[in-house]
Description:
single chain; alpha/beta; Arginase, Chain A; eight-stranded parallel β-sheet; 10 helices; about 40% helix; globular
Amino acid sequence: MLYIAYAPLYAHPLPEGHRFPMLKYELIPAQLLHEGVIAKENLFEPFACNEDTVLLTHQKAYLEKLLHQTLSASEQRKIGFPQSPALTQRELIIAQGTIDCCRYARQYGVALNVAGGTHHAFADRSEGFCLLNDMAIAANYLLHHQLASQILIIDLDVHQGNGTAKLFEKEPRVFTFSMHGQHNYPFHKEQSDLDIPLKDGTGEQEYLQILSHTLPVLLEKVQPDFAFFLSGVDILDTDKFGKLKVSIDGCKKRDELVFTELKKRNIPVTVAMGGGYSPDIKAIVTAHCNTFKAAKDIFNL
């Protein structure tokens, strides 16, 4: 069974200028249903993550600011969204969705969150559209409940997972791997356990060659019993901010490569969508839907 976490946008009203980037969260499941890739029973709507679980990762004073709407104007600018109770609630739902996906992945091999991948969130602050770091919250949940002993986070969004790197810099049970644009946001990079910065204009062949040489070696070295995969599609050549030259087909090959390597080692994986900012929403949705299709095909679900 393929389980997909889905947080409807009715929980998150946004000003007009912020709505376009959010459209994909409605269009992805709609497209998968339309094509018959999934049925309604594949989708589940999570509840909000509880405070104790969030506090395994984030500082209490910071969580209180989110819950009580006391972020300063400067702090809100760093997010890119104005604060609202609905925004905080959606982030809590997304975080719980990633946790729930971990439970399903342990049973079926893979599960996916239509949202998530909020890798710019730190223990004490928000950045880059990210308030709560859903993969970090889920990883700490697994460790706390002894559901995993060694975790690998595979972050292939075009932006470095700076919040994730910082959160786990002193945690040997979580290995952070980020392959990202060297000259892209964030302009101050944190240090992941393995960073591969890519030059502007890196092409599809080189991108896939680097990943195909790196990931198998990394899996043998880390020996994870659980993985997270941040499958951002802002690596596309059509992306407004990505600066890389990967086609939609190349992005699909990336996903297939990751899933194949994890599947043959019996490593369960939770997937979150991450970024995607092509001007044509169809390109974004197509690339993201390919991730779901690859997961379903390779894990035989």
